[in-house]
Amino acid sequence: MPQTRPIPTDQPEDDAPGSDPAGGATITPYRDGPLIVRGQFRLVDQDGAEIDPGRETVALCRCGKSGIKPFCDGTHKRAGFSAPSAPSRPRPAARILRAGRPEEVR
Ligand code: FES
């Protein structure tokens, strides 16, 4: 019987910390890498057409260099893509919403 081996990848395991136990989706920007989407989600193009992710956890490219966009193919490593996992500063709208004054957004 032929043996199957996992394809080497830098993507996290499906049961990695960060999975949403409430049944929603969790999107995790990985340092110097893709956006990992776990949980219940639908992936659609801008016209609303369904994109089959082919698996329950997907890596979406955020470096712009993947040959299989919107999915990550690992090219970010060769391209030297660099980005933090967390934002270095909050977006202005996030600060306003946290302050509880969304009506002030114009
Ligand atoms: S983030 Fe991996 S190829 Fe772009």
Describe what you observe in this structure.
The chain is α+β, with helices and mostly antiparallel strands. It has a domain at about 20-85: 3-Layer(aba) Sandwich (Ribosomal Protein L9, domain 1), CATH 3.40.5.90. It has two helices and three strands; from the N terminus they run βββαα. It has helices at about 75-80, 90-100, and strands spanning about 25-30, 35-40, 60. It has a three-stranded antiparallel β-sheet with strand order 1-2-3, with no helix packed on it. The model is unreliable at about 1-15 (pLDDT under 50). The chain binds FE2/S2 (inorganic) cluster. The site of FE2/S2 (inorganic) cluster has 12 residues, from helix 1. FE2/S2 (inorganic) cluster binds near residues 34 and 76.
Blueprint (SSEs and pairs):
Elements: E1 25-29, E2 35-39, E3 58-60, H1 75-79, H2 92-98
Antiparallel strand pairs: 1-2, 2-3
The site of FE2/S2 (inorganic) cluster has 12 residues, from helix 1.
What characteristics describe this protein?
2 helices; 3 strands; 11% helix; metal-binding; 3-stranded antiparallel beta sheet; alpha+beta; binds FE2/S2 (inorganic) cluster; disordered N terminus
